[in-house]
Amino acid sequence: MNLDLEKLPSSEVCIQQVRNWISAYPEQPLAYLHTFGCQLNVADGESMAGILKQMGYGFTDDVTKASLILYNTCAVRENAEDRVFGTLGSIKKLKQENPALILCVTGCMTAQKQVTEKIRKSYRYVDIVLGSSAVSRLAQMIYAHMHGLKFAQDIETHLDIPEDLEPMRESSFKAAVPIMYGCNNFCTYCIVPYVRGRERSRQPENIISEVRNLIQDGYKEIMLLGQNVNSYGKDLEHPVSFPELLREINQIPGEYWIRFMSSHPKDASPELMDALLECEHLAKHLHLPVQSGSNEILKRMNRRYTVEKYLSQVAYIRSKHPDFSLTTDLIIGFPDESEQDFQATLDIVRKVRYDNMYSFIYSRRTGTRAALMPDNIPDSEKSQRMQRLLALQREIAVENNQRFIGRIMTVLCDGESKKRPGNMTGRSSENILVEFPGSAGMIGKFIRIKITESHNNMICGSVL
Ligand code: SAM
Ligand code: SF4
Ligand code: F3S
Description:
Layout: H1 11-23, E1 30-35, H2 39-55, E2 58-59, E3 68-73, H3 78-90, H4 92-97, E4 102-107, H5 113-122, E5 128-131, H6 138-146, E6 152-154, E7 174-178, E8 180-181, H7 192-196, E9 200-201, H8 204-216, E10 221-225, H9 242-250, E11 257-261, H10 270-278, E12 285-287, H11 295-300, H12 307-320, E13 325-332, H13 339-352, E14 356-361, H14 379-401, E15 408-416, E16 423-428, E17 433-437, E18 446-454, E19 459-463
Parallel strand pairs: 1-2, 1-3, 3-4, 4-5, 5-6, 7-10, 10-11, 12-13, 13-14, 17-19
Antiparallel strand pairs: 8-9, 15-16, 15-18, 16-17, 18-19
Helix pairs in contact: 1-2, 1-6, 9-10, 10-12, 13-14
The structure holds S-adenosylmethionine, iron/sulfur cluster (SF4) and FE3-S4 cluster.
């Protein structure tokens, strides 16, 4: 059918129209939504779930019961993409059995030409492809599909920031609030700037009012999200810095914690650290991705800071709060990473003594500058380095966690322990995993715990 995707009715009209169609179905249709990737993608997934809910869809965790399946994809590493293609292959049968099933692929993978071409050629049963900045166009794409359009695609980068979305949040006490979209940094290994476009900041008043509403609704932890929150506000007509935004949010009355990620070390300022230390609602934890401990590698990664500058930031915050909790991201096996470069990475880990780390084996991403460099560290060497790094981090975490024994800590309880029935788990302000005996009534509440034991990946205690 000939339907001009540029001239579709507004999102609200499409939502209403689809709602009318759906209300005539004998049973409420169910949607199955699966998000891959980072917390920003999870937040997009919640916004799309909100749109589906407004349209009248119910939700299911059982893909075989769904009338609409949506995969919200991630492109950051090759294995993330492989998983999506594997999953798409595995549901071909469902589509054959039920041709009315609507299959959508959204998120970061779809912004890559070679991916959309592969989907069109090899996964012809996909009905809707939507780019990561086109979340608010979901309703229009579903409307177009229901109007008979065989394949609806919108993978353009949309620079406008949708403020009228009503996310369907998974948790009733933890909420993610994107404060900006896109990235300008072009770290040479990273696909994100290519698939998410340039930095766009939300207006501070919109963020503050969203956070205020969440706190009034009983949310206890708000995670502010951006690829580099430290450059928040620079693109606004009336620039506002990230520390200024944090101090404004901190004025909101209530019982809550604010967290944020990610914070690029090149722009992590003393003002940011001071805000972290001084604002009562800011969780006492900073995720400061270092990526490598070698200046040579950092330079070729285009990270635009040195090990010395990074360590001076750590020294600044630790001079005011000696065991301030820091976590990081590290990439192992970047092109030409020598044993000496890797030793420098182990060295920075020993110096900073992170409470946790997310380490990744380098994955070559087509289109990035590093993809032009030889991916020349053998896989066996990459995994051997990874094992050595993880062993060091385990050792450090065991020692670090001992500092909490005897302390009284406030923990936001988030669920029951999967390993030890009868125990609950939660996170402290430092983002340390804490386990304690308790009951389901504690979930979503701040609980005071006296810490009695420490392990490498968690600490334990009893409720006061
Ligand atoms: N914007 C955040 C920052 O700068 O810290 C990071 C966002 S990225 C989604 C999360 C992490 O994935 C990065 O910090 C990096 O360690 C890792 N990563 C990104 N591209 C990668 C690649 N090509 N191979 C391996 N790890 C990668
Ligand atoms: Fe990727 Fe670097 Fe941007 Fe983070 S700051 S999203 S690692 S390009
Ligand atoms: Fe996130 Fe993956 Fe996209 S990490 S920004 S979902 S490429």
